[in-house]
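PT: before anyone asks, these are the final sequences, not the draft ones from last week. 618 residues across everything. Please model them as a single complex and drop the result in this thread when it's through.
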Amino acid sequence: MALVIRVGPARQQWWLDHMQALLPEIECRPWDDPGDPNEIAYAIVWKPPPGGLKRFPNLKCIVSMGSGIDHVTNDPELPRHVPIIRTTAFDLTQRMREYVTLHVLRIHRRLPEIEAAQPFREWRQLINPPAYRRRVGIMGLGNLGADCARTLKAVGFDVAGWARRPKAIEGITCFAGDDQRRPFLERTEILVCLLPLTPETRGILNAELFRTLPEGASVINCARGGHLVDQDLLDALDRGHLAYATLDVFHQEPLPAEHPFWDHPKVLVTPHVASLIDPEAGGKAIADNLRRFIAGKPVPDLVDLEQGY
Amino acid sequence: MALVIRVGPARQQWWLDHMQALLPEIECRPWDDPGDPNEIAYAIVWKPPPGGLKRFPNLKCIVSMGSGIDHVTNDPELPRHVPIIRTTAFDLTQRMREYVTLHVLRIHRRLPEIEAAQPFREWRQLINPPAYRRRVGIMGLGNLGADCARTLKAVGFDVAGWARRPKAIEGITCFAGDDQRRPFLERTEILVCLLPLTPETRGILNAELFRTLPEGASVINCARGGHLVDQDLLDALDRGHLAYATLDVFHQEPLPAEHPFWDHPKVLVTPHVASLIDPEAGGKAIADNLRRFIAGKPVPDLVDLEQGY
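LR: through. Structure below.
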């Protein structure tokens, strides 16, 4: 019984050594040199190339190195019967919380304008409302979304959330389903997208959604590039309907050098770092989940493929 | 019985009208045209010019439009027997909490480097530790400092505080007095100054303090410009011992155009906006405090001049 690991080439050896130390009972092998494919029972992967996983006929479990699984399920030849485990370590939640809190505050406190004034030595005291009069909206109320909503509430914001199905989070106004999407968007001044990427949510950040937000609203996308219709965002920013966009995820990553987001004055590009996994903490979470799976214990991070996340 | 108001000229009429509406029982008059000085019983002031307050022989109370009172007590001719009330509205605490959380996260998440990479279209994924491995230190554990410490803890940081006298705040490692200043500084990677400005704290952010911080530490000053020895900070940044400084307050405000902070690549200048008072909320807090004072009820914001804040 062996395990195969697929990550970017620069980090492969580190991950092999690290996972081998954490899971001494299983032989860890590199993706490109897996030995006898019949021996591979487990695969730990980030963005595996299409067709790659079907090489292993005795695969018992696929581990996604991240909380999203679209990078795995995109594969048209994926062996659909194999269970998938996500990695939702405390660490990922912590990092996403930091990113969302930082970027909501950055827009709320008008930091882009303050930073732009510095090279001109301009002392411009810009007043903004206190956070309790700023309405933030979180789309997606899974682990990450719910945690971010609670943290923003603790900082003082007026927070609402929207999810496909009804949720209850103390202190957060929760909207659900297609019917309640419009009232949620109409009250949202800073929108944070933390939805899973599914056929229903692909392209959800589009012209119609931007029109429904109030004038001067801003958008933060730290879910997946596939949620956003890039040109619709550029149009809404250029028309002045939206004030700012902070984008961590893109249709193609790294974001191609010729993409207009790079030099748009109202777009902040961050290079998919919102919840970049810390290898130490992530490796530990992956080993814990695999051990539970192998022992037949419940694994909360096991994906429900019916829901798609 | 009348009240005199001293603010910047641009906002004077707004404040006169607003306070008159909130305190219909007292006549509100402008600082520069106070009528019979014997009739002035109360003064609401921001940076009153030296000698200005002693014009009113029957003054019963001075209200500082802010949580600091150094802008009042700096006056060598201040009538020392007149009680001073600070303005520590919920609003000020809320705004300071936002500012400190934003700027600690900005440094923690390496946003200056990420923003600097964007014009070069550089996709540079910089890893930083999770917040629970980042040690933040708050100097000054009054209303504002304690609230910021609690909020940073809720975001996930490893937070310690230092104050002149021992304090206890749940979840926060509290250091006190001169003896414990060194261990506090030695463990602090991001230092936030929220001290009151007193003879003992003037110039406390100096070369010796910076040397005690670990290499690569950063400093955020949102207390008073008088806490900082400007040249010592520039030296510590230029030597590379400190990574960044975020400064909201300055010896002279507005910060003079020729000051080296403006174009220093490691200094972010914000124009004294950390807890810029919201006139609506501030006016209400001032009126409430004055009414309590006049009625002889306890006023928690009354200053203890022995302590100097």
